[in-house]
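EI: anyone free to look at a 447-residue chain?
SC: sure, send it
EI:
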Amino acid sequence: MHLSRALTAWAVVAVLVALAGCAAAAGDAATATRAESALLRERFTAGRLARQSAWGPCVLVDSVALVPRSSCARVPKPGTRQFDEISALAVNVARRRTSGASARTLHTAALVDLLWREETLAGVDRAVASLERAAALAPGAAAVLNDLAVARLALAERDQQLRPLLQALDAIERARMLDDTLAPVLFNRALILERLYLVASARRAWARYLVVERDSAWRREATTHARRLAPSRDSALAALGPDELLARGDGPMPAGFHDLVRRAPQSARETGFAVLGEWGRAVGGGDTSRARLALDVAREIANALDAAGADRSFALAVRAIDAPGGGARRRALAGAHADFVDGYALFNRAAYDDAARAFERAERVLRTLGSPASRWVAVYRAAAALNRGDYAAGDAILRRATADATPAEPALLGKATWGLGLSQVRRGAYEAANSYYREAAPHFVRA
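SC: here you go
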């Protein structure tokens, strides 16, 4: 940082602090509007501020950090017209930032602090504090909660801590509950989920954002995020889809199949359970040829996962089908796997009540017949409960799944433990959530 620039920035902050005790005057809204107009001409945060229409690039400068760091527009340089204009407006805003300040004034003051956060170490902390006060004064203001989420995301980048990132997710979910059509809210929700490595949820969130966004520049950025999160569609991955695998008939598995399973074990597990769902439907429909083919494909996937040293959940589920027990047992397992896949489809359409009923049927049969697949069904049944706001039921299901899981199922353990963390986030218990997320991380490494 250049010394003259740093000293000038500190001088502006000193003025802000000195004037903070002045009584609020009439004209808060007009002052805030002028200040926001000047501040938001350029984008200076990774998250999208509520009244930010102008797009600008944000470049990842540290992609391997726990919370990736971004660099956006440079702050105005001392001596420039923009710097002088923003400084004068900042002083005017500060005159109104008192103990009795309005939510609008506090909101605008927070934007000033966010702009200068690289020059003043406490800038982000002040921004968060101001926005928390504003949110308390205006609990129905989605724009305030949106910008609180942006500020907490900036705090997470600075401190490299998950807690403010989890708090950012909480704030943006509250904003979404107030207005689920605001483009900045949907943008920030997708970005925060991505920063939390919730890839599937982030993909869906970016898709939702693209439905409402009309600005081509913001759309390009969102599309870049979505493409980065999308599974690669090279020829090998395309061949891993259940329809493609079953369409090959009795032919050999596609070239590169085993290498793909090694590189993407989670995708292979998901495909495997989808194939078992097709097996269940074929058994139920009396299509013995397709049922035989689907089970053969499932065995190939299970063997490839075992060879890769991955989580054995799916291999254990296939072994349960192949265990002795007679036709009635196998038909019951087939029906349960079909219910699992049906429930998964309903879950992805946010039909959580219907999904929960399908999962409950599947889990009951699979558990009774000793199939380890019951534990994966339980994890999704718990997720449906959490999405309905039934946290106690979701937690109980997840705790039973983790208690029943074996050391050979690290992906399952990680997913269930992560779900317990998500349940805590949604209730505002961030320290407990952070503990669960840290507990889940080693399981994902082994998966």
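EI: The chain has a mean pLDDT of 84.
SC: 👍
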